[in-house]
Amino acid sequence: MNIFNLGGQGRASGESERATGPATCSRKGCRAGAEWQLLWNNPRIHTPDRRKVWLSCGEHRDWLEDYLQTRGLWKEILPFTASQTTANEAG
Fold first, then answer.
1. Cβ(78)–Cβ(36) below 8 Å
2. 33 forms bridges with which residues in the sheet?
3. DSSP characters for the chain?
4. Minimal CA–CA distance to 40: which of 74, 71, 69, 72?
5. Residue 89: which of 59, 60, 57, 46 has the closest Cα?
6. 32-59 pLDDT, tens per residue?
């Protein structure tokens, strides 16, 4: 059971979980379209090969990168296009 779907209809077996709206910046309060993927992981709880993803607009890319680097979580930045799909999880 997924606690985030308790009030919903749920998914059929084999149905993937995907975002339904436009990809937006992960910075709190920002609704701008995503332009960048900031890949990170927390070495205390994630395996070394796991990558979590925050999306960023051009304005907040540096702020989010600095936030992750200061905490020793940042790994790399990649361009984001709305048509791409990744195996990474949004965090």
1. yes
2. 24
3. --GGGTTS----TT------S--B--STT--PBP-EEEEE--TTTS-TT--EEEEE-TTTHHHHHHHHHHTT-EEEEEE--TT---SSEE-
4. 74
5. 46
6. 999 999 999 999 999 999 999 999 999 9
24 by Cβ neighbours in 10 Å (0-12 / 13-18 / 19+) ranks as middle
Judge whether 75 and 41 are in contact, CB under 8 Å: yes
pTM, entire model: 0.67
Q: Would you place residue 19 in the very low, low, confident or very high pLDDT band (cuts 50, 70, 90)? A: low
Whether residue 84 is predicted with pLDDT greater than 70 in this model: the reply is no
Six token digits for residue 83: 């048509």
Interatomic CA distance for residues 38 and 71, integer angstroms: 14
